[in-house]
């Protein structure tokens, strides 16, 4: 039971990171290798806010969303927008942005920005305090379930529900789906596709920032912490079916539980190995992923 709950928390983080990635790729056909750094920025925002503003982890959630969404908006406006239709160039550009963001955290913040020492940032490992009520454990069917991991799961469900409402029940969501299916036709009908791209990129980055806040509660915060998450998020998106919300959720659940059970039974190395094996098997038998978006 405890292993299952750990798997749910892993799946929840994967889902939040992959959901933002899926929205960006499904709308703009852009592979954003800087997406993992949005997780890192969300975690460091939490470190700063808890140390210098007295925020708890609940208040850090909307703050990190705003900060990382702003970063995403700036990246889209200044770099990605100029590279539409050039997949390889976008791949290299976002990879470069990821490296720059990591080095800025390591060098400038670690050594002091413009001569000002900033306590709480840098290449040194950081930890985030978790509220006392989330440090408890509840007993379910004879197993001790950490309340914080249950909180992560509930937060992922809430974000999934909010994203579903945004995509399928709002005017912006209709425009988003129209642009992702037929960009030229949507533009001809009066939809500002550049604005939709900008907001989609910002929202996807914001989701990664929220994932960073939640990750910081049970993992050490470091400049390169986002790199593994962007790889795992791509696996989730590809295995679940690009642009399919339910597929992303199902894929994250399967891969999270597989990694948790195998890592508990053996170790993390075996867990990662089996994770990649499962993704390969899924793609062999379902080349378009577990769920395929129907189109006319």
Outline the structure in words:
The protein is mainly α and about 300 residues long. It has one domain. It is built from eleven helices and two strands; from the N terminus they run ααααββααααααα. It has helices at about 1-30, 35-55, 55-80, 85-110, 145-170, 170-180, 185-190, 195-215, 225-240, 245-265, 270-285, and strands spanning about 135-140, 145. Strands 1-2 form a two-stranded antiparallel sheet. Helix 1 (about 1-30) runs antiparallel to helix 8 (about 195-215). It is found in: Cell membrane.
Summed up, the domain count is 1
How would you classify the helix and strand content by structural class? mainly alpha
Query: What string gives the helices and strands in order?
Result: HHHHEEHHHHHHH
Uncertain runs? none
Distance between the termini: 43 Å
Per DSSP, the total helix count is 11
User: What is the CA-atom radius of gyration, in angstroms?
Assistant: 19 Å
Approximate shape: globular
Roughly how much helix do the residues carry, as a percent range? Answer: over 70%
- The average pLDDT score comes to 86
Strand order of the largest sheet: 1-2
Transmembrane segments: 6-25, 55-75, 87-105, 147-167, 200-221, 233-257, 269-285
Subcellular location: Cell membrane
Keywords: Amino-acid transport, Cell membrane, Membrane, Transmembrane, Transmembrane helix, Transport
Family: Belongs to the binding-protein-dependent transport system permease family. LivHM subfamily.
